[in-house]
Amino acid sequence: MHRTGALFGQFKTLEQQKDTATLGMWIFLVTEVMFFGGIMLAYTINRHTYFHAFAMGSNTLSLLLGGGNTVVLLFSSFTMAMAVWSAQTSRKGLITLFLSLTILLGFVFFGVKYVEYAQKFHHHLVPGKNFDISYCVNNPSKCEDIDAADMAKEREELEVAAKADPDLNAHAQLYYSAYFGMTGLHALHMVIGAGLLFWLLRESVAGRFNAEWNNPVDIVGLYWHFVDIVWIYLFPLLYLIDRHK
Amino acid sequence: MQSPLPTFPEQASNFAGDVDTLFSFILMTTLFFAVLVTVLIIFAAFKFRRRSEMEVGDDVHGNNVLEVGWTLIPTIIAIGIFAWGAAIYVNYRIAPKDTLDIYVIGKQWMWKLQQPNGRKEINELHVPLNRNVKLIMGSEDVIHDFYVPAFRVKMDVVPGRYNTMWFRPIKTGKYHFFCSQYCGTNHAVMGGWVTVMDPAEYAAWLSGESGDVNPVSAGERLFTQLACNTCHIANGTGRAPSLNGVFGANVLLADGSTVVANEAYIRESILQPKAKIVAGYLPVMPTFQGLVTEEQILNLTAYIKSLQTQPVPAKGGGIAPATAGKK
Amino acid sequence: MPEKHYLNATYGIRSWLLTTDHKRIALLYLASVTFFFFVGGFFAMMIRLHLLTPNGYLLTPDLYNRMFTMHGVTMVFFFLIPSIPAILGNFLIPIMIGAKDLAFPKINLLSWYIYVVGGLFTLWSMVNGGLDTGWTFYTPLSTVYSNSAVAPAVVGVFITGFSSILTGLNFLVTVHTMRAPGMTWFRLPLFVWAHYATSIVMILGTPVIAITLALAAMERLFGLGFFNPAMGGDPILFQHLFWFYSHPAVYIMILPAMGVISELIPTFARKRLFGYHFVAAASLAIAVIGFLVWTHHMFLTGQSTYAAVAFSFLTFIVAIPSAIKTFNWTATLFGGSISFDTPMLYAFGFLGLFMIGGLTGLFLGALGVDINIHDTYFVVAHFHYIMVGGAVMGYLGGLHFWWPKITGRMYPEWLARIAAFILFIGFNFTFFPQFILGIMGMPRRYHMYPPEFQIYNVMSTAGASILAIGYLLPMVYLTWAAFYGKVAGDNPWPATGLEWKTQSPPLTENFDVTPVVTWEAYDFHNRPDLQLDVPSGKGSPVVAPAHGDD
Question: Based on the domain organization, do B195 and B220 belong to the same domain?
Answer without folding.
Answer: no
